[in-house]
Design a protein that fits this description.
Blueprint (H helix, E strand, L loop, with lengths): L4 H16 L5 H8 L3 H13 L4 E4 L4 E4 L12 H16 L8 H11 L3 H10 L13 H17 L1 E7 L15 E11 L2 E8 L4 E6 L3 E10 L8 H5 L11 E8 L1 H8 L8 E4 L5 E8 L4 H7 L4 E5 L1 H17 L22
Antiparallel strand pairs: 1-2, 3-4, 3-7, 4-5, 5-6, 8-10, 8-11, 9-10
Length: about 350
């Protein structure tokens, strides 16, 4: 039986009309498509049978297709498309940021709706683009906690938790036992996911690493996120994510061999760089607390000197001395020449 191309054309015409404008009644469609109202009614039934959500609007006395059914044609530039592919496929799809794999599935749907020219250009460029972030926490260890915190945020439900704090935690936050927690936000930083929220046990807002939750469940109690809360305000001028109670104006000197590397990187929102005649630089920054920046300074080795504050200089000196001690001949962990045993400890 030959295909009824006139009807196929009419069905497509009806779909195009009701998508573009409201108020298309059967009578108006019949006039536009040069057919009877009876045929239009039959066409509308065929469209519904195909799974297309066609509704009648009593106010306009016409038919409409629900807006969310069709993804509108995308008019993204090549630059915009490439940026989305880079983030969704190379970072999300490869789970360089855990829990973001769904982004790769989403970008595939978007790519199908891009103009053919953009799709062709993406196919040429994308294979030559690579993004590699530092290794992250094990995904499976946090997936369940991540989903539960997400659900708590969505429904504003208080959580009942147990948490294993790091033994070296700066503020001694090793609260023992179960506590209630009201999550305000999830954020990814320093290779791991964290939840920031109100810790009932500490009676304060805390930043908790998801991989250290040993138990968490939703309760029936609800909560409200404070209107004025924001992650930026909570972090303040922290070097990364641990905000200390005291603000310090830090000045560091970097020798010429490291100066350019330091200057061309955005390390902190308050940083300023002053070049000196010998090719070295003075790097200044205002930070809340020294617990994080001290390790960054140490990672620069002999190429960095703390000029101020004195507290930071003393901490770097102390830690560097302890590091040196680890490599001394008196340390049981030091590397030794072949055949030479460590000296016995006192009382051995």
């Amino acid at each position: 039986m030959p295909a009824d191309y006139s009807r196929i054309h009419r069905l497509l015409r009806i779909l195009t009309l009701v998508q573009a404008e409201t108020g298309w009644s059967t009578a108006r469609l019949a006039v536009e498509c040069k057919t009877s109202e009876r045929n239009v009614y039959r066409d509308l039934q065929v469209i519904r049978a195909a799974g297309i959500p066609l509704d009648h609007d009593p106010q306009t006395r016409g038919y409409t297709v629900r807006k969310e059914f069709f993804l509108p044609a995308l008019s993204l530039t090549l630059e915009e498309s490439l940026a989305m592919v880079a983030l969704a496929e190379h970072i999300g799809g490869k789970e360089q940021i855990p829990m973001m794999s769904a982004a790769a599935r989403a970008i595939q749907k978007i790519r199908c709706n891009l103009p053919a020219r953009i799709q062709a250009e993406l196919a040429e460029i994308d294979p030559h683009l690579s993004i590699r972030l530092p290794p992250v926490s094990k995904i499976e260890e946090v997936r369940d906690v991540y989903q539960r915190v997400q659900m708590a945020l969505r429904h504003k439900r208080v959580m009942l938790c147990e948490y294993e704090a790091a033994s070296h935690h700066a503020d001694g936050d090793n609260f023992a036992g179960k506590f209630e927690f009201e999550p305000y936000t999830l954020f990814f930083s320093q290779r791991a996911w964290y939840a920031v929220g109100y810790h009932h046990g500490r009676r304060a807002v805390r930043c908790l690493k998801l991989s250290r939750f040993s138990c968490c469940q939703l309760t029936s109690r609800t909560y409200t996120i404070p209107r004025g809360f924001s992650l930026d305000k909570h972090l303040g001028n922290a070097w990364r994510m641990i905000r200390g109670k005291t603000r310090y104006d830090v000045e560091l000197w970097f020798d010429p061999s490291f100066a350019e590397t330091i200057e061309d990187t955005h390390w902190h929102k308050t940083q300023q760089v002053q070049w000196r005649d010998d090719g070295s630089i003075l790097f200044t920054v205002s930070v809340d607390g020294l617990d994080e920046i001290v390790w960054w300074v140490l990672s620069m080795g002999p190429h960095c000197v703390v000029r101020r504050p004195r507290e930071l200089a003393e901490r770097v000196k102390q830690l560097a001395g302890e590091m040196l001690q680890r490599y001394s001949g008196d340390s049981p962990h030091a590397t030794r020449p072949a055949g030479k045993a460590a000296a016995p400890s006192a009382g051995a």
